[in-house]
Write the structure tokens for this entry.
Amino acid sequence: DAGVIQSPRHEVTEMGQEVTLRCKPISGHNSLFWYRQTMMRGLELLIYFNNNVPIDDSGMPEDRFSAKMPNASFSTLKIQPSEPRDSAVYFCASSFSQGHYGYTFGSGTRLTVV
Amino acid sequence: SQELEQSPQSLIVQEGKNLTINCTSSKTLYGLYWYKQKYGEGLIFLMMLQKGGEEKSHEKITAKLDEKKQQSSLHITASQPSHAGIYLCGAVSNTGNQFYFGTGTSLTVIP
């Protein structure tokens, strides 16, 4: 298995543009998590899905952020419109059995909004 | 929500020295994970502890979970520059469906 795959690795966009981050979890994992990492706030949980259903999105900063998981092998995190304060590294992670056997993280997407 | 406090926040050690990073939880831990992250890279899973008093080792890194399951320590013996990075502890909620991260410890190892 190639692990959790995130794309793109790096994204530079202008303020106001729409940004879409993608994640392919490990096959067989039934939970998927989106995290944001900044220097100021460390690692924050944004939203997580269990069996493709969003369970807790209380970490999503505001309505500009949305996440979907149309099937077990794909998820997106969208920011529209993007703002400079959204600049961060966004991580996706997947797990099996609600994390009791560990979590696997993707390599992250470094987003820069100018 | 669960809170995980790590100490120290940052650590600079000379190569070859031993060091310890602590992770303290506000609630009983049902699964404690240690991760390492290098800048700009993904998180690397180090080990997981579940039982009170459990201790695990991987190469020169040893992690322990105390008997009360509210504190864990990560110990590195004879540190090397390759150990440098950010160490994060993480915990599963008692319902098993949420995951929380500690505040992180930045480790620098000077050759």
In short: The interface with chain A takes residues 31, 33, 35, 40-43, 45, 48, 88, 90, 92, 96-101, 103-104 of chain B (CB under 8 Å).
